[in-house]
Predict the structure of Cytochrome c oxidase subunit 2.
Amino acid sequence: MIALSPPQASSVAGSVDTLFDVMLALTGTVSVAVFVVMIVFCVKYRRRSHADRSNANQTRLGVEIAWTVLPFLMFMALFGWSISLWSRMRTPPADAAPIYVVAKQWMWKVQHPGGQREIDSLHVPLGQPIRLVMTSQDVIHSFYVPAFRQKQDVLPGRYTQLWFTATREGDYPLLCSQYCGTDHARMTGTVTVMKPADYARWLQAHAGQGLAEQGAERFRRFGCSGCHDSQSGVHAPDLDGLYGSTVPLADGSQVRADDRYIHDSIMLPRKQVAAGYAPIMPSYSGRIGEDDVLALIAYIKSRRTAMEAAREQH
Ligand code: HEC
Ligand SMILES: [Cu+2]
């Protein structure tokens, strides 16, 4: 049999296909009905036919209400159904495991929290929710896995996410679905879904320095520690416990220190200056890659205050 659609390999694939089939059937029925009526009238009112052309003025209120209200209800039902499915596809469960993706012309760079790195391939375990945190190094790309029925734009200067639970073992094509330059069509890869035990073995075999440790190393290499260490002579904020806290800004507003805030603090330090400090931090935009920023964020996340660390012990 010819496959009309890619395999259904994620927890939402079946629902997306059902919605698609219902919409296809509905719009198909309407199109066919319009063409049937058109052809019937073409024949009935062809030139020299003896059809009634007196053009009597008649109204059938019931019919007119029915053909207005019924399609309206049908399309509202489709709308409600789509919205509920869409919000399910956009809301990752709390226990979803993060994996980081950096897109650049023309490749997908994948970084697992344990330090495993891949290019143009992504290994995931079967049956476990995975949350991809994605950003682009250059232009807009779009992460698309047809077998998962999931797609998400990947933008420079922003973190977008996509989540899925793979439900079938195997290799599935990964595509870029946003025209991104000369080699766009070759910006492809493979998503490999493995049994949890095989996946654990794969992680072990490819384990590297953890993402947070890589960040710690970069923090020294890029000179961040020269200003941000407590021993440094420069008046710069202490980054312990920064992640998730509320930061007062020089303009009087406040902001929550999330991934995006830390990203922008590094790449666009003038955008939001912490209150009480001079805007002396240099911009790292163009000097370090988005994968470096991801490692730095992981490192800053791992830096708790002494108090938080003590609380976690208990
Ligand atoms: C020349 C000294 C200097 C260097 C080098 C430097 N910073 Fe900063 N950084 C500052 C100062 C001063 C501020 C506070 C003013 C501001 O928000 O721009 C700051 C703010 C920050 C903030 C926001 C902190 C908060 O409390 O809101 C983060 C995050 C940060 N830096 C990370 C880094 C990282 C990561 C690096 C290395 C890639 C780095 N900094 C390099 C001086 C520096
Ligand atoms: Cu692309």
About this structure: The pocket of copper (II) ion (ligand 2) is lined by residues 141, 176, 178, 180, 184, 187 (CB under 6 Å). Residues 102 and 109 are 5 Å apart (CA to CA). The mean pLDDT is 91. DSSP finds eight helices and twelve strands in the chain.
